[in-house]
Amino acid sequence: MQSKITYNLTIDGHDISFIPNQPFNAKQCLSEGDKSTIALAFFLSKLDIDPNRQGKILIFDDPLSSLDTNRRTYTTGIIKGLVQQMRQVVVLSHNEYFLHEIGKDFGLVDKNTLRITENFAAKASIIEECDFK
Fold it and tell me: pTM score, two decimals?
């Protein structure tokens, strides 16, 4: 049985609607960063109450996309905290500085950093280990 959570989002005292074509609907009132942050918050809240999270593998696909500097810093900290709690965490990103930040403090954790490069002449991709030091 799954628990059900009721919530309301408000901006300046106005309830945000998730129904299209309604006044103050989420599509018109929230930025892409707001939407990404809310989606991540809901995902993390569900993960937080999962008694089997130590056996889970998490995959983040470009989690900083559309986030401002404060949200990027906070999200980086959250992901770093999850590395110790999960079976495995996979982070995909085009931002090598972010990937370096995620992995720099985990000396005891088994980690691999891979880079995928495109060989346009051969019409193939190459996966190789990458060291961000």
Answer: 0.73
